[in-house]
Backbone:
C-alpha cells in the first residue's frame, strides 16, 4: 500500500496541481502527480455543500450580448449548480454576473429537447424557468400598531387590547372596543402575510415571456390598499433569450437580464448582496400542476428568501441627490424633543412625530446612482386614532421625496433639507422645505434666492386647535453663491379661522416677477361684540408689502394698506377646503 510522505501544491492559471510523492516496498522513489481541478473565477466562492452560503458574482464577460448563446460565459466556472429534486429533474449550471443595466443570469440545461409552453397562461404545462429575487437582508417590519399626533401604540398580541391605557373614554363601550381591537389585530396578522410578498419577486420565464407571479398577484389582491401601497407596485420586466441547442451535451441555454428597476425594494444605500434562486421546471404531467424541477438552492422553500442563494455583488454605491443626504435616523424615541429636527420625514406643525423608532427605509434601485425617493415602512398614523380602526393598516409604505434643481452644470439646490452644491462642494442648512418643489432665481453672481410657495395646505393630522383649518405659507431663502451661506430671508405661515382669536378668513400672497417685493393680503372679520351671538359686522382686506434688503439679506416690511382693495388676481384659493 503506497503511503504519502510529503506534498507540494502548484497553482497554474485556473488549475491547482497537487503533487504527492509515494514510496512502495523495493522502489526507492516513485513519484506520480495527481491533478485536481477546482473551478473558480473572479471572486466566486461556491460549493454544492453550501449553496445557501455567501457567493460572489462571476466576472461578467466583456461585450456581453443577451442572446441566449452562452459561449462567452463558458470560459468561467459556474456560480451555481442545479440540484435535482426529483429523479427526472434536469441537471445544469448557472452563471450570474452584473452590468450597468442590472444582473445577468445565464445557464446551460441538460437533458431532452424542451417542450415550451404554448402561451403565457399555460406556463406550468411546459418547460420553463423561475427566478426568485429578494434583498440580501431580512425584511424588517415594525410591531403591529398604529400612531397619532400623541405617539405610537403597539400590540404584541390580542391580549394587549385590554391594556388600561387603551381604554380612553369615547362613544364606544370599552368591551366593544376591546372586541373590535382583537378583530383588528387578527386582520393585521393576515394582511402582513400578503404585505411581505411585495418585497419579493418571482418571474416565470420561457422564450419571449417573463411574468412576475408572486408580488404582482399579492398587490392586486389588496384592492382597497393600492393607493397606500402604490410605491410597492412591481414594475420593470426582465429581458430573456433562449437557445435550443443543437449540441448533444445540453438541451438549451438561456440569458436573463434583470434590470435594476425590476428589483424588489432593497435596503439603501449600498447594493452589495441579494438573495436569488433559479428553478428549472419540466412540463407538468397528468394531475400534477408542476413538472419535476431542479433548483440552485439545495434546501429551497417556496417564497422563503432565507433558503435562497446569497449572491455577493460588486458593491454599487447610491447617493441621495447630488447633495448626498444621510439616511434618516430612527434611533431615538419619536416623541423626544427635536427627535426629527434633522429628518425630512416630519410635519412642520408636529416636528416630533414623523415616524416611529421601529420604522425602516428601503429604495428601488435604478440605473442612475442618484436616488430621489426612499420608501418609509412604518405603521399608519392619523389624527385622534385613539384605538385601531378597520381602515388602519400596519404597516404601510410612504415616500420620502427629494428634489434637485440644477443651475448650469456646476451648481444645484436640493431639498427637503435645503442644501446647495457648487463644484462638488456641499453646503447644508438647518431649513426644511416641506411643501411643493421650490424655485430658484439667481440675482447676481453672488446672490441666489430660493422660494417655497406660495402654498395652501392642511396639517397632516388635522388635529390640535382648529386642526381642520387651512394654512397659507411663503418662505424665502438667501444664498451666498461665494461662501455657501444659507439664510432664511422671509417666513409667513398663517391659518384661516374666523374667530375672536384669529379673525383671518382669506389670504393671498403675491410675489413680484423680480422677487424683489412680496405682498401678503389678508381678509379680516369684525364682529358686534355686544351681540352674544357674535354677529358678523364687516369684512376688510389688508395688504402688507415686503422688500428685499441686500444688506440685511432679508425681506423687510416696506408698506401697509388697511383697508385695501382685494387682490386683483388670485394665487391661492381655499375653495377645496370648504364643505
Residues:
Amino acid at each position: 500500500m503506497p503511503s504519502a510522505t510529503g506534498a507540494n501544491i502548484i497553482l497554474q492559471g485556473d488549475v491547482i496541481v497537487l503533487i504527492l510523492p509515494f514510496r512502495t516496498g523495493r522502489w526507492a522513489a516513485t513519484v506520480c502527480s495527481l491533478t485536481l481541478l477546482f473551478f473558480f473565477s473572479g471572486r466566486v466562492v461556491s460549493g454544492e455543500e453550501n449553496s445557501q452560503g455567501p457567493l460572489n458574482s462571476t466576472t461578467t464577460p466583456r461585450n456581453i450580448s443577451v442572446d441566449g448563446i452562452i459561449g462567452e460565459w463558458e470560459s468561467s466556472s459556474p456560480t451555481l449548480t442545479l440540484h435535482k429534486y426529483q429523479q427526472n429533474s434536469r441537471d445544469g449550471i448557472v452563471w450570474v454576473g452584473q452590468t450597468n443595466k442590472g444582473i445577468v443570469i445565464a445557464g446551460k440545461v441538460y437533458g431532452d429537447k424542451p417542450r415550451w409552453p404554448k402561451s403565457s397562461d399555460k406556463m406550468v404545462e411546459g418547460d420553463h424557468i423561475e427566478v426568485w429575487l429578494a434583498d440580501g437582508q431580512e425584511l424588517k417590519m415594525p410591531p403591529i400598531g398604529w400612531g397619532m399626533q400623541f405617539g405610537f401604540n403597539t400590540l404584541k398580541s390580542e391580549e394587549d387590547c385590554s391594556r388600561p391605557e387603551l381604554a380612553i373614554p369615547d362613544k364606544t363601550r370599552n368591551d366593544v372596543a376591546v372586541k373590535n381591537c382583537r378583530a383588528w389585530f387578527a386582520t393585521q396578522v393576515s394582511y402582513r402575510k400578503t404585505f411581505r410578498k411585495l418585497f419579493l419577486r418571482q418571474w416565470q420565464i420561457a422564450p419571449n415571456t417573463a411574468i412576475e407571479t408572486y408580488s404582482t398577484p399579492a398587490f392586486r389582491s389588496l384592492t382597497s390598499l393600492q393607493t397606500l401601497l402604490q410605491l410597492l407596485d412591481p414594475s420593470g420586466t426582465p429581458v430573456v433569450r433562449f437557445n435550443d441547442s443543437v449540441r448533444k451535451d445540453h438541451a438549451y441555454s438561456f440569458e436573463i437580464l434583470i434590470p435594476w428597476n425590476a428589483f424588489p425594494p432593497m435596503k439603501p444605500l449600498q447594493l452589495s448582496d441579494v438573495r436569488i434562486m433559479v428553478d428549472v421546471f419540466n412540463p407538468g404531467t397528468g394531475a400534477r400542476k408542476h413538472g419535476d424541477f431542479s433548483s440552485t438552492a439545495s434546501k429551497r422553500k417556496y417564497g422563503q428568501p432565507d433558503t435562497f442563494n446569497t449572491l455577493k455583488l460588486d458593491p454599487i454605491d447610491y447617493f441621495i441627490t447630488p447633495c448626498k443626504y444621510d439616511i434618516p435616523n430612527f434611533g431615538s424615541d419619536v416623541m423626544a424633543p427635536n427627535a426629527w429636527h434633522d429628518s425630512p420625514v416630519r410635519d412642520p406643525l408636529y416636528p416630533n412625530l414623523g415616524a416611529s423608532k421601529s420604522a425602516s427605509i428601503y429604495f428601488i434601485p435604478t440605473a442612475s446612482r442618484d436616488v430621489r425617493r426612499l420608501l418609509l415602512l412604518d405603521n399608519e398614523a392619523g389624527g385622534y386614532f385613539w384605538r385601531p380602526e378597520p381602515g388602519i393598516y400596519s404597516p404601510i409604505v410612504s415616500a420620502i421625496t427629494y428634489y434637485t434643481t440644477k443651475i448650469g452644470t456646476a451648481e444645484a439646490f436640493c431639498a427637503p433639507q435645503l442644501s446647495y452644491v457648487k463644484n462638488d462642494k456641499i453646503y447644508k442648512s438647518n431649513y426644511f422645505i416641506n411643501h411643493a418643489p421650490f424655485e430658484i432665481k439667481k440675482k447676481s453672481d453672488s446672490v441666489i434666492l430660493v422660494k417655497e410657495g406660495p402654498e395652501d395646505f392642511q396639517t397632516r393630522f388635522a388635529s390640535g386647535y382648529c386642526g381642520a383649518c387651512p394654512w397659507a405659507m411663503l418662505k424665502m431663502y438667501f444664498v451666498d453663491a461665494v461662501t455657501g451661506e444659507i439664510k432664511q430671508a422671509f417666513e409667513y405661515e398663517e391659518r384661516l379661522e374666523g374667530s375672536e382669536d384669529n379673525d383671518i378668513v382669506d389670504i393671498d400672497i403675491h410675489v413680484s416677477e423680480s422677487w424683489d417685493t412680496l405682498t401678503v393680503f389678508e381678509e379680516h372679520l369684525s364682529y358686534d361684540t355686544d351681540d352674544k351671538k357674535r354677529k358678523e359686522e364687516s369684512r376688510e382686506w389688508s395688504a402688507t408689502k415686503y422688500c428685499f434688503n441686500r444688506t440685511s439679506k432679508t425681506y423687510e416690511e416696506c408698506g401697509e394698506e388697511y383697508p385695501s382693495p382685494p387682490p386683483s388676481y388670485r394665487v391661492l384659493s381655499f375653495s377645496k377646503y370648504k364643505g
About this structure: Helices lie at 174-197, 215-221. The chain has a mean pLDDT of 83.
